[in-house]
Amino acid sequence: MKHFPFLGTIVLLLLLCFPSTSQAHITCGPLVGNHMVLQQQTDVRLWGWTDNAGATLTLRTSWSKTKFKATADAKGRWEFLVPTPAASFEPQTVTISEGKEKVVLTDVLIGEVWLASGQSNMEMPLHGFEGCPVENSAQHIMESIRYKDRLHFCTVAFSPHPEEVDTVTAVWQNCTPQTARDFCAAGYFFGARLTEALGCPVGVINSSLGATRVEGWTPKDIVSTYPGENLQSDTYLNAHLVRPAYNVDRGLPCVFYNGMIHPIEPYTVKGFLWYQAEANAHAPSTYADRLVRMVRSWRERWGLGDLPFYYVEICPFDYYWLRDKATVALVREAQYKASEMLPHMGMVCTNDLVKDYEYWQIHPCMKKEVGDRLCLWALGDAYGMEGIDYRYPVYRSMQVEDTERGKQVRISFDYADDGFNRNVGIEGFEICGPDSVWHKASVGTSGRQITVRSDEVKEPVAVRYAFKSFQLGNLKANSGLPVIPFRTDNFPR
């Protein structure tokens, strides 16, 4: 019998030249990974890609005996819809396999998942920015260890793009002092309060970036209808090529939605948190409509109904680059207006969450209170928890009346059923007569109403409260939630 020692070498070379098409390489989609939190008691979407179009993949979970199967499409994309049980602190596993290839995801928690987005006040980490501290940050970072195995974070990487893309870097982490210090402060405080209130795991995803406009987080099919937005400029078309990346123009439209929201849309969430508007402070007339259109588009693309959307009013700040300081007050007015345009939208008022010395600090330090108030909205509205005060006193109507001291204005409010926090020393009110000249007002409380007057205004026609760029308010409901800044007039600026 003849032997051909070189035959094995030839066979090996042929195998290397023509690799088996059955060899798989499984890649999970953004947010699908170790330490992820899955929304409880729903069908969550888990997705990714394989090298083999048409391949069959199998998924198993530690909480169910059910074996799920999916077929990769022509581009190798696969997707599973997986039912989740009630929330639990017990770590779970998810196993995805194709042939001999297997991916095992560990430390998976079942609980509540929220997406936080916006600009720098949302991006601001728990340890603060340089020269912009978070109040008591060292203490909060130290105490973050108590949320280990209860609170998980995920930060979506900076990734602007002129077109919608399918993937982005987004890595989940368990809560420890090391991870919490770099996570967004407002999102951390929201998550910490929520896990305490609900007694279940919470996952918070942060996809935010400083100095960005609402148009930057909105899909192109919507922004293309806005006048003055250039979607064909070299700056726009090359946004993904700028190096170093952080030098990209933060005012660009669409690119942050394309690269930092669209890739994570398949992930199942409970709702959204939003802290933005500073970059739109120059354009109050369009803000309410554009925010609402962005919210509608997100809800449509997630396909999970009217997902709750809770957002933060821009805080008192001097806005020294704006000549017309009333513009900022009009933006806050537009922010509140937006909350009345769609269901399950709510605004956190912040005109009491700034120190008197922070008039030139656009990143105020009181982020814990912001997170707590976002959580109040979630508990009262999204979770329907009874007994939670989450709505702010808001102006309803005014009436001019005669008194022994002259005429005064009586203001009525919604959501002030238990009255107010103080009877004297109320700051921030102005009153004017037919001449439209504003004067500081004296204010008194009368049950659920307040009275406003000034000896300098004999015939009052209008009242304003905290209606300036920087005006701290101190009038609150008994709940501790502040009166939302307002005006009773519609005078031209």
Commentary on this structure:
- With 493 residues, the protein is an alpha/beta fold.
- The chain folds into 3 domains: 26-109, Sandwich (Immunoglobulin-like); 110-382, SGNH hydrolase (Rossmann fold); 394-487, no CATH class.
- Helices cover 21% and strands 27% of the residues.
- Strands 2, 4, 5, 7, 8, 9, 10, 11, 12, 13 and 14 form an 11-stranded mixed β-sheet that branches.
- It is elongated, with a radius of gyration of 27 Å.
- Mean pLDDT is 94; it is low at 1-22.
Gist of the model:
The protein is an alpha/beta fold and 493 residues long.
Question: Topology of this protein?
Answer:
Blueprint: H1 7-17, E1 26-28, E2 37-39, E3 43-50, E4 56-61, E5 67-71, E6 77-83, E7 88-98, E8 101-118, H2 120-123, H3 137-143, E9 151-156, E10 170-174, H4 177-180, H5 185-198, E11 202-208, H6 220-223, H7 234-237, H8 255-260, E12 271-275, H9 284-302, E13 309-312, H10 326-339, E14 345-348, H11 367-382, E15 394-403, E16 406-414, E17 429-432, E18 438-440, E19 442-446, E20 449-453, E21 462-465, E22 486-487
Parallel strand pairs: 2-8, 8-11, 8-12, 9-11, 12-13, 13-14
Antiparallel strand pairs: 1-3, 3-6, 4-5, 4-7, 7-8, 9-10, 15-16, 16-20, 17-18, 17-21, 19-20, 21-22
Helix pairs in contact: 5-11, 9-10
